[in-house]
Hints:
Radius of gyration: 20 Å
Number of domains: 2
CATH topology of the largest domain: Rossmann fold
Order of helices and strands: EEHEHEHEHEHEHEHEHEHEHEHHHEEEE
CATH class of the largest domain: Alpha Beta
Strand order of the largest sheet: 9-8-10-11-12-15-16
CATH superfamily of the largest domain: Response regulator
Largest sheet: 7 strands, mixed
CATH architecture of the largest domain: 3-Layer(aba) Sandwich
Mean pLDDT: 91
Helix content: 40-55%
Amino acid sequence: MRRFRVVVPALALTLAVSVLGVACGSSSTSSKTPLLVASIASRTGSAAPYGVSQQNGTALAVSELADGSIDLRAYDDLSDVQTGTAQMKKAISDGVQVVLGPTLSPVAAAADPIAQSAGVPVLGVTNATLDMAAIGNLIWRVSLSENAMVSASVKYAASKKSVKSAVLIWEPADGYSTGSAESFRSAAKANDITITSEQKYVDGVTTAGAIAAAASSGSPDAIFFALRSAVAGDFLVATATSKAVRVGGNGFNSAAVLKSSGAAADGLIVSGSWNINTSNADSKKFVDSYTKANNVAPDAFAAQGYAAIQVLLAAMKKAKTGGAAGIQEALGKIGTVHTVLGSFGYDSNHEPTYAAAVQVVQGGTFTLVS
Length: 370
């Protein structure tokens, strides 16, 4: 059973959700005081396609798996840094013991230090470009990093498409884009690919068409897109007739991007933390239950939200003491957890160790190729 409580803080509308155990759940689990968990995500704003999926996946996992052991509160960060920090402060003042999110890496970069200072662990559900280690020891990643995903995509392009040269398109004013661009540079070097030029997109000053024409003029083997999802569709359309292999960062790993670009997206290589055709039992069951609950198939962000609860529940089982401190200690001792993302574990830098899903867009869908 789910109860919805609406709270209006100073800067934003906060949707607070408590997910309780079902009546048939284990009495030993249900009788314990539930762990208070905040899900901070972009239910509105530019990152809403990610944030809504993220929170839907999290809520589904709590309802299916937690058996009353988690009290989930959902907050909307509006895809905005100021609101995200305000919502983190609100969640901490509400007494949460674990935080999932925020959605965007720049928002998380500003908000996560608040949780670090308060001694509350954070699971970065969708933060691909965020430097987790730089914030502190309480920050853990659930999604793969941009480095891991871009590295997998570029390696595939080099080995399967014989890519030797590329043009990089990125947006200096966007935090995600700058991080993604650095991942592409590193991956190109590791795979003996020469980046012959870099084209910088400036919103309101340059156009996708002009940038695409400049990128294609030197006949590169590939075009690397280190761009946010809001402009991804425009660039796919603008490069639809290019002979270059197109490789996108995680900003392109969205059903909304495929919808906006249509057939122009076909052939795009982009990796993610998960693909709907991933062959593990947890994933297949998740696809069925999520589709039934939301009347739409899940994307990678929904899967990451679901997996965050699976990881958290594994930590709760390992925890010797309750609350934030117990969870923090246990996260480093979870070993291998079977999740919708695959066999999940953490390395010494709090980075997940599962493999990226390399995808090629075919017929408007993300087709798993590796």
